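testing teh design pipeline on a random one, pls ignore if ur not involved
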């Protein structure tokens, strides 16, 4: 790995570490109703919204009503977005000349579910499918709403650990509005301004037709790119304005914008660990979670960088010195391997499918890293709000296992993990494997599923299919573009995976938080397992890796692992 890449990664991670504490404290104050420097601007707006909508800000919700509000809010958002997409030909800014991809009912359904679950899985090319109205009033608005909804769920989950002898997890509508006004809106405005300064378009101009040097013509898409780009990352959504996402020079023009966009993705989920520590009254607990996340992130970053820097072993016989610059296939020269690897590692961990390179062109081991990151279940920083409950649920599984080893009822923050809590943990842990493996198996044994493999087959084709469902379930959207996913089969089945990943995990997580909120904290004694220690951090890492290995290793062995071995054997018979 070059010194320049090491410096880039080190500076990036240093900025993340430095922002965790101040941003975590800020979000704690926002969602605890304490004073912040933005109160003079947003408190009047917040009160006006409550008066207009009739929301009782003082009403508390238990886990059941909080979940119901979240599900109904998501359902309404999905239906409104579906209507916008289906009617976009009759709405403003529709360009019938350039928008050539039909907005079929299946595609509209898939896209609406995708954006309302923060997956932003895109089975379409934005510049040939979406009108400016759909991009702004539909997709951008839903990026704000779905991101704020996820953040609200994360805060409610934290309250379940922080509160005692109560059924209340807060008020979903209050948390939603405060997430929008105090967190996402000001951050997106600042990021958009920097992106515009760096050359990202923010206009409603018609597409430009240019004559290239060879005499042919080229259509250059325009649009309000900066508005969508900022919230797609801050809300851990990831859907691109253009088909090639962050590889497009209008969406991600410079190395500075690349780093800024990656920071936009990672900083808020990272800071939520600090928010957790503050709200439960033990900042060390939050730091343990953060360092676990950071360790796994750095490990994946190093492995991915090594795989791509090593290049494709099959090309070694045809190139004098192999690939001295590494595997540059599918990567933008302006980012190089270093910037591409950083983006892929960040996007695959943070539930944000923003990408600046073609993942389908990565080496087999390089492609396996982001796939494994997603299989870990958003526990490495993760999505907005979902990341914090993902790592805590994994931590509690590990705590239960260690409790069995030492013959004690496991406790976390003085609260016991009894049979009811363990049943929810089991449901949470099993939803992913059951959904992913069944959908993948269905795709590889049916004609409609195999029909999506238009460019690859064999081990790489299996990886493309597994990645599609994993990305959908992880509410990520990162794709192997070799899979033709705009078909009724994939539009329907990936939508099922998205719903399972969003609601199939959030509902048991909120139910678990509700059970924990009812308990009374017990004092810490010398015989209890310390959960703010290096040993507990090791337990979390070991639990995550063992669960993923036991569940998904056969699928990975048939996909990227065997593909790597075949390439290596072909290069060195």
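output:
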């Amino acid at each position: 790995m070059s010194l320049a890449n090491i410096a880039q990664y080190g500076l990036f991670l240093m900025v993340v570490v430095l922002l965790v504490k101040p941003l975590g404290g800020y979000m704690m104050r926002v969602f605890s109703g304490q004073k912040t420097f933005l109160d003079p601007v947003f408190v009047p707006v917040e009160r006006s919204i409550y008066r207009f909508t009739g929301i009782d800000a003082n009403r508390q919700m238990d886990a059941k009503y909080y979940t119901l509000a979240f599900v109904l809010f998501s359902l309404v958002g999905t239906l409104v977005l579906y209507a916008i997409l289906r009617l976009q030909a009759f709405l403003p800014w529709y360009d019938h000349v350039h928008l050539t991809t039909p907005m079929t009912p299946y595609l509209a359904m898939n896209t609406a579910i995708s954006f309302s679950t923060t997956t932003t899985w895109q089975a379409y090319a934005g510049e040939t499918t979406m009108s400016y109205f759909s991009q702004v009033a539909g997709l951008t608005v839903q990026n704000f709403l779905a991101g704020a909804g996820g953040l609200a769920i994360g805060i409610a989950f934290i309250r379940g650990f922080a509160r005692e002898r109560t059924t209340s997890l807060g008020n979903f509508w209050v948390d939603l509005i405060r997430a929008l006004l105090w967190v996402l809106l000001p951050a997106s405005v600042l990021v958009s301004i920097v992106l515009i300064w760096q050359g990202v378009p923010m206009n409603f101009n018609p597409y430009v037709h240019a004559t290239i040097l060879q005499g042919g013509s080229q259509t250059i898409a325009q649009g309000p790119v900066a508005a969508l780009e900022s919230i797609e990352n801050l809300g851990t959504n990831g859907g691109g304005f253009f088909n090639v996402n962050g590889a497009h020079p209008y969406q991600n023009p410079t190395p500075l914008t690349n780093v800024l966009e990656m920071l936009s993705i990672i900083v808020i989920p990272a800071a939520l660990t600090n928010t957790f520590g503050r709200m439960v009254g033990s900042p060390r607990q939050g730091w343990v979670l953060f360092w676990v996340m950071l360790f796994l992130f750095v490990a994946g970053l190093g492995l991915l960088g090594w795989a791509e820097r090593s290049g494709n072993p099959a090309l070694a016989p045809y190139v004098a010195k192999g690939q001295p610059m590494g595997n540059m296939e599918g990567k933008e020269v302006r980012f190089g391997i270093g910037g591409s690897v950083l983006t892929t590692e960040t996007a695959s961990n943070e539930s944000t499918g923003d990408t600046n390179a073609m993942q389908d062109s990565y080496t087999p081991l390089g492609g396996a890293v982001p796939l494994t990151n997603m299989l870990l279940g958003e526990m490495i920083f993760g999505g907005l709000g979902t990341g914090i409950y993902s790592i805590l649920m994994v931590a509690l599984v590990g705590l239960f296992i260690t409790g069995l080893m030492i013959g004690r009822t496991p406790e976390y923050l003085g609260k016991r993990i009894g049979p009811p809590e363990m049943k929810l943990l089991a449901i949470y842990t099993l939803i992913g494997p059951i959904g992913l493996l069944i959908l993948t198996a269905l795709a590889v044994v049916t004609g409609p599923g195999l029909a999506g493999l238009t460019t690859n087959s064999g081990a790489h084709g299996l990886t493309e299919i597994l990645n599609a469902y994993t990305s959908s379930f992880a509410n990520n959207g990162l794709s192997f573009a070799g899979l033709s996913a705009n078909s009724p089969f994939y539009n329907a089945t990936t939508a099922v995976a998205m719903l399972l990943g969003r609601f199939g995990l959030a509902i048991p997580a909120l139910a678990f938080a509700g059970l924990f909120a009812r308990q009374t904290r017990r004092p810490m004694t010398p015989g209890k397992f310390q959960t703010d220690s290096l040993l507990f951090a090791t337990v979390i890492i070991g639990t995550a890796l063992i669960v993923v290995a036991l569940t998904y290793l056969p699928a990975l062995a048939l996909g990227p692992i065997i593909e790597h071995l075949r390439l290596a054997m072909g290069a060195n018979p």
